[in-house]
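Hi V.,

You were right to ask for the full record rather than a summary. Here it is.
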Amino acid sequence: MNVNIEKNDIVSCHRIGKEPTAGKPRSIIVRFFSRDLKYKIMSNKKVLKGKLDYKDIFINEDLTMLRLKMLNMVKKHDNVKSVFTRDGKINCFLRNGRKKIIENPDDLKCSSNSVCSSICSEDVKNQSHYSVSNKNHTCNSNLALHSSYSFNSESSCSVNLKNSKDVISSIKVLSLNVCGILAKLKAPELEELCSNYDIVCFCETKLDELDVVELDHFRLLPPLNRKNGKCKSGGIAVFVKNSIFVNIELLHSSCENVLCSIDIFDVIEDDLITFITEKDYKVCLIGDFNAHTGTKPDYIVLDEYICNSMQLDNIPSHDININNLDKFGININRASLDKSVDNYGNRLLQLCKSLELFIANGRLGKDSGIGALTCKEATVVDYCILSPELFTHVCEFKILPFDAMISDVHNGVHIEFMNTNKPNVGIQVNDVNKNGNVTVKPKWDNEKYQSFVDNLNDTEIDNICEKLNVLEVENIDKSVINNLVEDCNIIIRDAADASGFI
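Predicted structure:
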């Protein structure tokens, strides 16, 4: 199994079960000092498969009786392709490519006919696509998706998701500097992670033109020309789920060869100018840029010198495209735990300013106000950069915890776009509760003022006033106040919904 086990690695080891019957020895249970060693053994046990000397030897996690029964039931299900356990949780891959975790008997009950009806319903949903663009901010348009790695890398391919009549609730995208994809795919952790996504963008794959790499239920986009690559470092691989691949259109780069310098930004900028100006595409630029940007602005600051040079009067010293940030309720100030700035970072910031793109790190989702580190737990070099119109279509953004089984030093970047006929106007990305969830707040529109007032429920307002009139001071406590506040919130939310604010 290529796993080195020392005596000190084992906490306890003994046989379990009743006295053996003829020809059937009792099972052996082993407790390891390190969880990582356990994972390594579980990952490499497939090496024993097919070897005659280990024909009747099986390595499994120690499960409770209930979970063992559930595991056997899931194995027999028609919609299940494969099953494995990790940390006592039952993970199953469905035949439609999705993954389901069975954690308790209730999950199994709802899956008696389909291993959870919600998953089977995705067979219909996944035939569609998801995209965002268009001046009216609807979601049935174009999404230019770049996966780029700036240093020792190649220029990125682009993806345009075509229009489709079907509907999908959201599309999940993963970006990860995998630090050598062939080695990482030998462990189940990476494939398990990828099963939760629709598009997976790998950087630093370290592949050459002779390497063949496959990922179950995904199709690999055509690779770049690596003939001028001096070594196997760098490399990009973009996998798209089979269920949406039919709706993918490749947007070819002006440079199809490997680039290993800061010149990569020039290529990206030239391509995006074409996509944005000529085709009105909205952009999601994602990957490892090897760029340190600190908290420097990714928008243009109009200082006094620039205003005087352009003969502008009474212009606030803000970003010239600050209106795009304000329009969509994006936090102007970007947080980052990495305060360093280098040449690559300045070039990346210049690209953002030139094309009116904004860095999502430190502004959105669970990373709002944080700017979590993405490499070696010391720096931020993996980014997601968006057109401002796309910010309101992001329902989740976060930096994944570091996992040495899927990357040597990098964290994954997770972003999920929601499919809706109208954007969530005014997402306040700096409003995050203790669980890391973004609070969506409507942005006020004076043109809808009268509609909002008309939709306020007078009866409910009178009921609140009556409660206040009969309320005794000595009976006031925290729960009473919370209930009254919630009643007010309901009135306001219902009026906002009816008026088109939400």
